[in-house]
Design goal:
single chain, 339 residues, alpha+beta, 10 strands, 15% strand, disordered N terminus, disordered C terminus
Length: 339
C-alpha cells in the first residue's frame, strides 16, 4: 500500500510493506520551496501519518538522527498479535491534528524570525500570511470546543437582546401573534444562554489533577503516557464519545479530559489518546524510565528531577498553565527550547 500527501511546498509520502525486512516501511519529506512550509489548509489534508511524524519530527529536532525504519517497525515488534484494542478506542485524530497544527505554528514563527534576520522581507511576508491562516484555524478549533470561550455566551446574550427588542416592536405594533412566538424564542434563548454561561464558568474555574509533561498511567489499560494537553470537559465529537464509551464513565463527559502521548514501545498504533481524568493516575517512581514518542522533542525540553517532562513555554501559554518546578530543579531557560 502506498500513501502520499502533497501540500504546497511539501511532499509527504510513505510506503507500507512486510515487517520482515525486504520492503520495510519508509518515509520521505521534501521541501520544494523553503518559503512555503505548509499548504493553505493544513487541516483539510489531515497530515497525521505515522511516517510523517517519525521522519519530520524525530529527524529534525535537536539534530538527532533516528532511523525511521527502526521506529516504524516497532509497530510489529511491540504491537503484538492478540493485543486488546480497547485502549485504541480512545485514540484521537483531532487531538493528534491539534498537536501538529501547534507544531506548524511554531515552525512558521521560527522561519519568520529567520527570514527577518537575513532581511528576506518578502519571504517573511509570505510566511506571515501562512501563519495567519493557521492561527485562524486554531481559533476556529478553540471556539468549536464545548464552552471553550466566552464568545458563544456573548453571542447568545446579544441575540437575546435583539429578540427582546423585536418583541417590544411587535407589542407596540399590536402584532400579538408575532409577540407570542418571540416570547417562546426568548424563553429558549434564556435557557441556552444560562447553559453556555455555566460551561464558560466551568472553563475558568476548572482544577486539573495532572499537569503538562507529567507521566501518567492509564488505570484501565495500564499503558504509560505523558500529558500534553487538557480540556475542562470532553471536547470530542458525539460519535467519538459513543465509540470511546464516555457515557459509561462515572463522571461522564463533564470532567477534565487530557491529550496523552502513549509510549510507542507499548502501542505504536495509539500515538495520541484522549483520556478522562478518572481513568488516569500519576506514574510511580519506578515507571518514570525511558519514554519514546515522536512528539516529545518539540513539546518538551528535558526532564525535571521528578522524572517528568518540562513543557516548552509556548505549550504552557496555549493551555494557560503555570510553570511547575519539582524540588531541587535547577533554573532552566525558556528561550533554550527546540521549538
Amino acid at each position: 500500500m502506498f500513501q502520499a500527501y502533497t501540500m504546497q511546498g511539501i511532499s509527504v509520502c510513505g510506503s507500507v510493506a512486510s515487517p520482515l525486512g525486504a520492503n520495510s516501511r519508509t518515509a520521505c519529506v521534501t521541501r520544494n520551496d523553503p518559503r512555503l512550509p505548509c499548504g493553505t489548509n493544513v487541516v483539510s489534508h489531515r497530515v497525521y501519518s505515522w511516517d510523517w511524524c517519525v521522519h519530520k519530527l524525530h529527524m529534525k529536532t535537536n539534530g538527532r538522527r533516528m532511523n525511521a525504519t527502526v521506529r516504524t517497525n516497532a509497530k510489529w515488534m511491540f504491537g503484538g498479535e492478540g493485543r486488546s484494542n480497547d485502549a485504541r478506542l480512545e485514540r484521537s485524530e483531532s487531538a493528534n491534528e491539534d498537536i501538529l497544527i501547534f507544531y506548524f505554528q511554531m515552525d512558521l514563527q521560527t522561519r519568520i524570525q529567520y527570514a527577518l534576520n537575513i532581511e528576506q522581507f518578502d519571504v517573511a511576508k509570505q510566511l506571515r500570511e501562512k501563519l495567519t491562516e493557521i492561527e485562524t484555524e486554531i481559533i476556529r478549533q478553540r471556539e468549536a470546543k464545548r464552552g471553550s470561550s466566552k464568545t458563544e455566551a456573548q453571542d447568545k446574550a446579544l441575540n437575546l437582546l435583539r429578540v427582546r427588542a423585536d418583541l417590544q416592536k411587535a407589542i407596540d405594533g399590536e402584532n400579538y401573534a408575532l409577540a407570542a412566538g418571540l416570547r417562546d424564542e426568548i424563553a429558549k434563548l434564556e435557557a441556552e444562554s444560562l447553559a453556555v454561561s455555566a460551561k464558560a464558568l466551568a472553563y475558568q474555574n476548572v482544577k486539573y489533577a495532572f499537569r503538562l509533561g507529567q507521566k501518567v498511567r492509564h488505570k484501565v489499560h495500564g499503558y504509560r503516557g505523558v500529558i500534553c494537553g487538557m480540556d475542562p470537559v470532553c471536547c470530542e465529537s458525539k460519535s467519538w464519545m459513543v465509540t470511546a464509551n464516555v457515557e459509561k464513565l462515572s463522571k461522564g463527559p463533564n470532567q477534565p479530559f487530557y491529550q496523552v502521548l502513549v509510549d510507542v514501545y507499548v502501542d505504536p498504533e495509539l500515538l495520541v489518546a484522549y483520556v478522562a481524568e478518572e481513568n488516569l493516575s500519576a506514574a510511580e517512581e519506578s515507571e518514570k524510565g525511558r519514554f519514546d514518542h515522536p512528539y516529545i522533542e518539540f513539546l518538551f525540553y528535558g526532564e525535571d528531577t521528578a522524572g517528568d517532562f518540562i513543557p516548552i513555554k509556548q505549550l504552557r501559554e496555549k493551555y494557560d498553565q503555570p510553570r511547575y518546578e519539582a524540588s531541587e530543579d535547577e533554573e532552566d531557560d525558556d528561550d533554550n527550547t527546540n521549538s
